[in-house]
Amino acid sequence: VCPTAALTEVNHTHKVWEELHKPDKYVVVQVAPAIRVALGELFGMEAGSIVTGKLAAALRRMGFDQVYDTEFGADVTIMEEAKELIHRLEHGGTLPMLTSCCPAWVSFIEHQFPDMVDVPSTCMSPHIMFGAIAKTYLAEKIGIDPKKMVVVSVMPCVAKKAEAARTELSIDDNDDVDIVITTRELGDMLKEAGIDLDKLPDEDFDHPLGKSTGAASIFGTTGGVIEAAMRTAYEWVTGETLEEVEFKQLRGMDGIREATVDLKGKELKIGIAHGLGNARQMLEDIRNGKSEFHAIEIMACPGGCVGGGGQPYHYGNDEIVKKRQEAIYREDRGKSIRKSHENPEVIKLYKEYLGEPYGELAHKLLHTKYEAKERI
Ligand code: SF4
Questions:
Q1: How many C-beta neighbours within 10 Å does residue 173 have?
Q2: Alpha helices per DSSP H over 21-158
Q3: Atom 1 (ligand 1) nearest CA
């Protein structure tokens, strides 16, 4: 189930229960965009059912102290990634810039293309950014010792477990994210606790890290991260309002896609690949000087995170993955704000704490570096 075949699945549900039962711990949970369009399948619902509100209610009933949304971290990722792309374009930085929110793909490049580790964006992935913000900004705001805070991520992904264990993704030896469980593991825990998702009311995420935009929702599908980045980069580069936020030319299910985005005077060439075979082809083109892209999104799993290795099994049925993808786009259309830089809680975070996107503190907390590693 791991797209790099480098990981076997380890169940971490017992660790979460243990932390939830410790009275001196403050346990914060976050859920990735792709979970809300797939979890329902484990409770007999149709593929593509959206259970965002029920999911927040279920996590609260499990006993988490605060229930948050990785989509907030995705909006912050766009603030950083769009700024990094503009910086690279304006200052002769390495191009193309590759999105970095898929850890399986980052690990793939470190091991298989070690001469190209300067190509991916230095942005940490959204759930790691969320963890770093929770253990600094949030901990300070609510008066909790960050060492007592436990951040649990519910992810569609087995590779995110290995990512959270990377030692560089920590502050003062305190991991940004402590435990990662998959969609399937969450389903098991809810069943163990006797929580029937279908019967729960819709509830909201907590605040101040629970508000998100449509741009963050589409992180869950192939093409979504780069589309979200374009919504923000367009407005920052042109200074004009982007009226039509859906970049249809970036969507679809073809394994490798190319598109051009017009930034009024600057044409950005965008590449998209999903599945590691397609990623390899794109990377070889870059290495051989055949690539003319400015930015590339790569997702290791076919379809992106909606088809992730930690999601309910779909047994190769592409229709299920497509229905989850359609649900992701419905989530986006249903949001009142669809551009990451317009998220009021994100704006507040930068104003009160981080300062400028891609600035000094943002670099310290939200960016990382990659290492050339032995070929496996
Ligand atoms: Fe994880 Fe797959 Fe999503 Fe990559 S594409 S982050 S491996 S679920």
A1: 7
A2: 52-62, 70-90, 103-112, 126-133, 139-142
A3: 157
Catalytic residues: 81, 84, 101, 121, 160, 163, 168, 305
8 belongs to a structural domain: no
Distance, CA 216 to ligand 1 centroid (Å)?
A: 15
Q: Which ligand 1 atom lies nearest to the CA of residue 309?
A: 8
CB within 6 Å of ligand 1 — which residues? 3, 102, 104, 156-157, 159-160, 299-301, 304-305, 308
Q: What is the pLDDT along the chain (376 residues), one digit of tens a residue?
A: 555 545 557 899 999 999 999 999 999 999 999 999 999 999 999 999 999 999 999 999 999 999 999 999 999 999 999 999 999 999 999 999 999 999 998 999 999 999 999 999 999 999 999 999 999 999 999 999 999 999 999 999 999 999 998 888 898 899 999 999 999 999 999 999 999 999 999 999 999 999 999 999 999 999 999 999 999 999 999 999 999 999 999 999 999 999 999 988 889 999 999 998 999 999 999 999 998 999 999 999 999 999 999 999 999 899 999 999 999 999 999 999 999 999 999 999 999 999 999 999 999 999 999 999 887 6
Could you tell me if the ipTM is greater than 0.95?
yes
Question: Is 7 among the domain residues?
Answer: no
Specify the 3-state DSSP secondary structure of 171: strand
CATH classification at residue 101: 3.40.50.1780
Q: What is the residue with the minimal CA distance to atom 6 of ligand 1? A: 102
Mutate to test the pocket of ligand 1, among 299, 311, 314, 324 (most ligand atoms within 8 A of CB): 299
Name the strand (E) or helix (H) holding 278. Answer: helix 276-287
Q: Indicate whether this model's pTM tops 0.90.
A: yes
For CA atoms 373, 365, 144, 70, give the dihedral sign. negative
Orientation angle between helical segments 224-238 and 70-90, nearest 10 degrees: 50
Task: For residue 5, tell me if it sits in a domain.
Answer: no
4 domain residue, yes or no: no
Q: How many domains does the chain have?
A: 1
Q: Ligand 1: which atom is nearest the Cα of residue 4?
A: 7
- Structural domain for 98, as ranges: 13-366
